[in-house]
UniProtKB/TrEMBL annotation:
One Gene Ontology CC term in the entry: plasma membrane
Subcellular location: Cell membrane
Family, per entry: Belongs to the ABC transporter superfamily.
Protein name, per record: ABC transporter ATP-binding protein
Membrane topology: Peripheral membrane protein
GO biological process, one term: response to antibiotic
InterPro entries tied to this protein: AAA+_ATPase (IPR003593), ABC_transporter-like_ATP-bd (IPR003439), ABC_transporter-like_CS (IPR017871), ABC_transporter_ATP-binding (IPR050763), P-loop_NTPase (IPR027417)
Length: 319
């Protein structure tokens, strides 16, 4: 497991990172998202040892990273770093050799990766002759050729068409299946939502949210529910502690208040100060009471918590 703990970094008088902490689990695809200037690239460079931090630490499986550990990382920078006039396969073999691989092993891995990334037919072409999308695939092959123990990828899907995204996703998933922690940044939230196991949202140099997709969806959408009835759902507007957000005949999207806001009765005398867990449980109880009343009024075709999209969660946490 890769762990970033309380990392801070300033440039001059500007605080670029402020107490950044998150983990990338073994075999987990972790999406790292944020706007321009949020701190993603700075964080990645500190993980790789390209930049030093003013405070905090980066560790792998509980031990502080050494240069030898980082030599086993695979890194793809956002800026393309391949030699434009060098042939694709020749260059990737060369990079594998720099990581200490034998020529035979580097050649075997290069051929396998280029075939997996659908670049096999372009192995003898120079990098500069490739399209931008194919250059991106070649860069990914360069990051993977030495079979890294950790992958850190800055915008790996930039410039790729939907088919190429699926191809690259499959190659990265193979690394994750071997237990490799994979950290990747992207501005393409739909792609991140589709392929990541975990998510870290950073804004203004601070982590605003982190966790699995399911945890974040539950945390940020847990008080909203969708219901579809065989009868008009307008009666929901008159239910105490319920706010109707969207309504269309028998369909309604509604939000229920937690115990502290709605004054929902519980057996806990300290319910109003018990925190988020109590409020979530109370909100769920209120939603169940809505469901019970709905069943008395007619058949319920659908009832479920609203699952917010990554884009919705992102907008909510960076406000």
């Amino acid at each position: 497991m890769l762990e970033v703990a309380n990392v801070s970094r300033s440039f001059g008088g500007r605080r670029a990172l402020d107490d950044v902490s998150f983990t990338v689990g073994d075999g987990r695809m972790t999406g790292f998202v944020g706007g321009n200037g949020a701190g993603k690239t700075t964080t990645m460079r500190i993980i790789l040892g390209v930049l030093s931090s003013d405070a905090g630490s980066v560790s792998l499986d509980g031990r502080t990273l050494t240069p030898a550990d980082r030599a086993l990382f695979g890194y793809m920078p956002e800026e393309r770093g391949l030699y434009p006039k060098m042939k694709v396969a020749e260059q990737i073999v060369y990079l594998g050799r720099l990581h200490g691989m034998s020529r035979a092993a580097a050649t075997t891995n290069t051929e396998r990766l280029l075939d997996s990334l659908e670049l096999g037919e372009r192995a003898g072409d120079t990098v500069e002759s490739l399209s931008l999308g194919n250059q991106q695939r070649a860069q990914i092959a360069a990051a993977l050729v030495h079979e890294p123990e950790v992958l850190v990828l800055d915008e790996p899907f930039s410039g790729l068409d939907p088919i190429a995204v699926e191809t690259v996703q499959g190659v990265l998933a193979e690394s994750a299946a071997r237990g490799v922690p994979v950290l990747f940044s992207s501005h393409q939230l739909d792609i991140v939502e589709r392929i990541c196991d975990d998510l870290v949202v950073i804004a203004g140099g601070s982590v605003r949210a982190s966790g699995s997709k399911e945890e974040l969806q539950s945390r940020h959408g847990g008080s909203r529910y969708e219901i579809e009835l065989s009868v008009d759902a307008g009666w929901l507007r008159d239910v105490d502690g319920v706010t109707v957000i969207d309504f269309d005949g028998g369909y309604a999207l509604f939000e229920v208040q937690g115990a502290a806001e709605a004054g929902i009765a519980t057996n806990d005398a300290d319910a109003t100060s018990a925190g988020a867990a109590t409020n979530d449980a109370a909100a769920d109880g209120a939603a169940q009471r809505v469901l019970a009343e709905a069943l008395q009024r007619g058949s319920v075709r659908r009832f479920a918590p609203e699952h917010l999209s990554l884009t919705q969660i992102f907008k909510e946490v960076i406000r």
